[in-house]
Design goal:
Number of helices: 1
CATH class of the largest domain: Mainly Beta
CATH topology of the largest domain: Immunoglobulin-like
Strand order of the largest sheet: 2-9-8-4-6
Largest sheet: 5 strands, mixed
CATH architecture of the largest domain: Sandwich
Helix content: under 10%
Distance between the termini: 72 Å
Oligomer: single chain
Shape: globular
């Protein structure tokens, strides 16, 4: 029979506890609004459907993703984005930029059904490399299955920079999220939106031209000067 001294037992328990804490921290994220997103796409326009990996933990997460399956009506076009890159098609695989504490991950489906009604189902497998956790993300998107409602004509958002603050007004609840990109296309910030206005401090970013993209039924893009 083997015996373990109390000191050695304490060391083993400490190692086990450290491993358990690190493993739990590596999994400290959740998908919002969930791992399955149902949405309605507008005809002859690009609709954006985001699944965000909310990360409140203190570890850096490393995600890789793989296309699982695609079923769409003929004539539909779609592409995928993550937190660092946007692709022109439903790319078969890729890796996100590392998710450091305080940042979130992103898997974003961009879809244009043209003028063809129907329902499409797109699935991607997302794996966190440290923990080995794997989830299947599913988008179930329909077009033309309900009564069309004519949107009122609203003015474009008012976007400007003042005192190193990016300000967006006249949003009118039309936009679900905002993304800020550098001039070379790197994603600097991604923020869910709600309400009629939004502000973001630019103090952490280098002076120069930035690109703001607001995601909604009709996306809005504007370049701004951080000075």
């Amino acid at each position: 029979m083997w015996y373990i001294s109390s000191n050695r037992r304490s060391v083993l328990w400490a190692i086990l506890l450290l491993f358990t804490v690190r493993y739990a921290a590596a999994q400290s994220y959740e998908h919002q609004p969930g791992d399955t997103l149902r949405g309605q796409a507008a005809f002859n326009d690009i609709s954006v459907f985001n699944i965000i990996q909310v990360h409140p933990g203190q570890d850096t997460l490393h995600f890789r993703w793989q296309r699982h399956s695609v079923a769409m009506p003929p004539g539909w076009t779609a592409s995928i984005c993550d937190n660092g890159n946007c692709y022109t098609e439903l790319r078969d695989s890729g890796r996100m930029a590392p998710i450091v504490p305080g940042d979130n991950g992103l898997m974003s489906l961009h879809l244009d059904p043209g003028s063809t009604p129907g329902t499409g189902v797109i699935r991607y497998i997302l794996e966190e490399e440290n923990s080995g956790r794997s989830d299947t993300l599913t988008w179930i998107i329909s077009a033309g299955t309900g009564t069309a409602v004519q949107d009122p004509v609203l003015p474009d958002p008012l976007v400007y920079v003042t005192d190193r603050q990016l300000v967006a007004l006249r949003l009118d609840g039309r936009y679900r999220a905002a993304a800020l990109y550098s001039a070379d296309g790197r994603l600097l910030a991604f923020v869910p939106l709600a309400g009629d206005s939004w502000r973001l401090s630019l103090a952490a970013y280098s002076p120069g031209v930035l690109l703001l993209k607001l995601y909604g039924k009709r996306n809005f893009i504007k370049s701004v000067l951080n000075y």
